[in-house]
């Protein structure tokens, strides 16, 4: 699989931890984050990411994910490819099967981006 489109979020010069409320997004950062959130906006991809992230040991074989869905293996592979292109996961082929894992720190970076500082007058 090609890694040419794999871009890990938060690894650029614009800073990894700038939150949504810290400053308005520039066009490039907005486009980058939109790609990530678009990938997460699909229920199948969100479930796949959850299956991978929650797996003990940190990685899962595509052969273990496919039976959880009423979709063909090529369709599952397409969804996994979109998650890879968004910079959320990576993979490695081992023999016949491909194993996937969440890229280190990516979910923490997304959470940090979405976290806004609490103000003294804010109520829950």
TrEMBL record:
Judging by the UniProt lineage, the source's domain of life is: Bacteria
Instruction: Recall the GO molecular function terms of this protein's record.
Output: DNA binding; DNA-binding transcription factor activity
Known InterPro entries for this protein? ArsR-like_HTH, HTH_ArsR_DNA-bd_dom, HTH_MetalResp_TranReg, WH-like_DNA-bd_sf, WH_DNA-bd_sf
Q: Which Pfam families match?
A: HTH_5
**SMART domains xref list:** HTH_ARSR
Residue ranges of domain HTH arsR-type in the record = 25-122
Task: Specify whether Transcription is a keyword of the entry.
Answer: yes
Keywords carried by this UniProt record: DNA-binding, Transcription, Transcription regulation
Please report the name of this protein according to its UniProt entry: Transcriptional regulator
């Amino acid at each position: 699989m090609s890694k040419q489109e794999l871009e890990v979020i938060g690894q650029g010069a614009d800073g990894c931890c700038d939150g949504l409320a810290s400053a308005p997004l520039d066009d490039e950062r907005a486009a980058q984050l939109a790609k990530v959130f678009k990938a997460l906006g699909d229920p199948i991809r969100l479930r796949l990411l959850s299956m991978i992230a929650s797996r003990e040991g940190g990685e899962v074989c595509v052969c273990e994910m496919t039976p959880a869905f009423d979709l063909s293996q090529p369709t599952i592979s397409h969804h996994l490819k979109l998650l890879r292109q968004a910079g959320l996961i990576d993979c490695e082929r081992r023999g016949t099967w491909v194993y996937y894992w969440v890229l280190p720190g990516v979910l923490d970076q997304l959470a940090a981006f979405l976290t806004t500082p609490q103000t003294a007058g804010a109520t829950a």
